Amino acid sequence: MTTKDQAPSRSADMLEVRNLVKRYPVKSSAVSGRKSAWVEAVSDISFDISKGQTMSLVGESGCGKSTTARCVLRLVEPTSGQIVFRTTDADSDATETVEITTASPKELRNLRMHMQIVFQDPFASLNPRMTIGSIIAEPLAIYGIGDRSERADRVADLLQLVGLEPNDAHRYPRQFSGGQRQRVGIARALVLSPTLLILDEPVSALDVSVQAQVLNLLMDLQDSLGLTYLFIAHDLSVVRHVSTEVAVMYLGKLVERASAPVLFGKALHPYTHALLASVPIPDPDLAANQKRIILEGELPSPTAPPSGCRFRTRCSLAQAPGICADAEPEFRELEPGHWVACHFPSEVSATA
Ligand SMILES: Nc1ncnc2c1ncn2[C@@H]1O[C@H](COP(=O)(O)OP(=O)(O)OP(=O)(O)O)[C@@H](O)[C@H]1O
Ligand code: SF4
Ligand SMILES: [Mg+2]
């Protein structure tokens, strides 16, 4: 559903996600004794992203990051919740608000001009039979934008913008390195001039040296084009220098959310402490004093998450039996903008 609003929006947030839930059915063999079961990949999460900011969503493999991204783009149907996207017309300053979960196919088609995704795997996400130029121009062709020569000009401009050569348009994906392919993926995501980019682990498949180059490119593009990012990563080290805000996710739930300086300076959740402990510190003296927190135990099955706090089976602060097993901790705003889901939030990690 779309609404138009001449007055400035009450909220400056470009994207608002409220109580988002996504359940997938799983086969009976996955859960003994039951005919059918559900995996709640995303379990009642809420967050906002303001225009021009980078919100990072961080957590281990399988915690529901990509499912969240796919729900925001409605590439998968959310089970419940609200996802609101706002765009502002640069000329009239009018704000258009789209409720993504109830948007019509036509509204979704318009919406996807404003929201694009860059995938993790630059090898799998580019069609090997298409030239780089055709890959980048494809969304223009789908939306019927420009003629052949205008599209070629746009492709040449974008190739330069992402640090490649206009002549690269005639080459094929196999002729490019991983980092170069990811630049192509970024160019393709930018071709419709979106305002929000969802970056689903955009550098995880790249060598460490190339990761920094692609991260720098993304930050430069954000500055020059005024982009807003939802940046997905499985470890905090990648997002440290790019985030405005960070949300930490565990087994489908958000466990902590704060501005980047607060999250990296005074995290309060035991899981965030564990993720922070695995962030490499470049200074050897400081690194020698770095606390080592090893996450013990396996990630529980998302089809049967632990009762109470989902992190309790791996948490050194957990009371068992006790409140951690009996009651799910509320996601509370302990200080303005700092949200935590833990019965015993603490700035100091329990394990050194
Ligand atoms: N189509 C699907 N059908 C059933 N289960 C699914 C489906 N897609 C995802 N899942 C399950 O939902 C959970 C979350 O998956 P998701 O891909 O969102 O995690 P992720 O955080 O992106 O992980 P990764 O870091 O490995 O990419 C996992 O348990 C996954 O197995
Ligand atoms: S609620 Fe209990 S188990 Fe969960 S993170 Fe906090 S201390 Fe650990
Ligand atoms: Mg993923």
CATH class of the largest domain: Alpha Beta
**What hetero molecules are in the model?**
adenosine-5'-triphosphate, iron/sulfur cluster, magnesium ion
Between the first and last Cα atoms, what is the distance in angstroms?
Answer: 51 Å
The helix tally amounts to 11
Helix content: 25-40%
Report the principal-axis shape.
globular
Characterize the largest beta sheet: strand count, sense, and whether it forms a barrel: 8 strands, mixed
CATH hierarchy: architecture of the largest domain: 3-Layer(aba) Sandwich
Oligomer: single chain
Major β-sheet strand ordering:
7-8-9-4-10-11-13-12
Number of domains: 2
Strand content: 15-25%
CATH homologous superfamily title of the largest domain: P-loop containing nucleotide triphosphate hydrolases
- The secondary-structure element order is EEEEHEEHEHHHEHEHEEHHHHEE
Stretches with pLDDT under 50, minimum 5 residues? 4-11
Query: Helix- and strand-based class?
Result: alpha/beta
- The CATH topology of the largest domain is what? Rossmann fold
Write a structural description.
A hairpin with a 2-residue loop joins strand 10 (245-250) and strand 11. This protein folds into two domains: 2-243, P-loop containing nucleotide triphosphate hydrolases (Rossmann fold, 3-Layer(aba) Sandwich), CATH 3.40.50.300; 268-352, no CATH class. The chain is 29% helix and 24% strand. The chain is globular. The chain has 352 residues and is of the alpha/beta class. Mean pLDDT is 89; it is low at 4-11. Bound molecules: adenosine-5'-triphosphate, iron/sulfur cluster (SF4) and magnesium ion. Adenosine-5'-triphosphate binds next to strand 2, strand 3 and helix 1.
